[in-house]
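Lab meeting, item 3. Inverse folding demo.
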């Protein structure tokens, strides 16, 4: 259990620090415009693809509740925590970083904009890490179910 807790905490801290440092580069004025993608600064007042932006300042409190809910679930389900400590830590670190942005900047700091062949939403490192964690959870679940079946 101690190993899982260390992995969990390192993932939270690591993702949070990396994401905030990357965002600082753009907050300090860095921009780059390319043929396929651009690195720009934008503030997302909603969630993915700016959905729920009509909730404005209330969205951050909903996000606090969701992150607390995940944390409480992990506290009361230690087997889940032990199995998924890395992806759970990554998700919470990324979620905390985006939540921090909402309180400090009024919206999530996004900067990676794909615009070749189609225009895609602007996103950040934390968003990528959340998606990576979901994939990691699916992989772990698949291997656990395969081991269970024998």
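The presenter then showed the designed sequence:
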């Amino acid at each position: 259990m101690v190993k899982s807790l260390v992995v969990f905490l390192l993932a939270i801290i690591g993702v949070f620090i990396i994401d905030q440092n990357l965002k600082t580069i753009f907050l300090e004025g860095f921009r780059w415009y390319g043929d396929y993608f651009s690195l720009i600064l934008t503030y997302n007042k909603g969630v993915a693809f700016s959905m729920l932006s009509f909730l404005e300042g209330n969205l951050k409190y909903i996000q606090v509740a969701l992150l607390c809910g995940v944390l409480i679930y992990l506290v009361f389900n230690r087997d889940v925590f032990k199995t998924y400590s890395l992806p759970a830590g990554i998700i919470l670190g990324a979620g905390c970083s985006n939540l921090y942005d909402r309180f400090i900047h009024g919206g999530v700091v996004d900067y990676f904009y794909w615009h070749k062949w189609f225009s895609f939403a602007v996103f950040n490192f934390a968003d990528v890490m959340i998606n990576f964690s979901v994939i990691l959870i699916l992989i772990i679940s698949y291997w656990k179910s395969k081991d269970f079946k024998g």
